[in-house]
Design the sequence.
């Protein structure tokens, strides 16, 4: 993973965490709604994982936001 990949993953994670807090959801509740594991959500928020487009779509739907908000 190069430096740019790490920065993108960190930016995605920060945005994910911000939206999750705004929606007042725990990592566990978000994971349940998205059909993912809670530890995976945690890793994403810390910028440690590189989510697929399919996973990002699942998360956006679980948060009831457009996928594009993660790219603004």
Sequence:
């Amino acid at each position: 993973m190069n430096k740019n990949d790490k920065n993108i993953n960190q930016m995605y994670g920060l945005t994910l965490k911000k939206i999750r807090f705004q929606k007042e959801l725990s990592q566990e509740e978000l994971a349940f709604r998205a059909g993912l594991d809670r530890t995976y959500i945690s890793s994403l928020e810390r910028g440690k994982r590189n989510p697929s487009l399919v996973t990002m779509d699942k998360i956006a739907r679980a948060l009831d936001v457009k996928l594009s908000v993660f790219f603004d």
User: Anything to note?
Assistant: Helices lie at 3-22, 27-34, 38-45, 53-63. DSSP finds four helices and no strands in the chain. The mean pLDDT is 94.
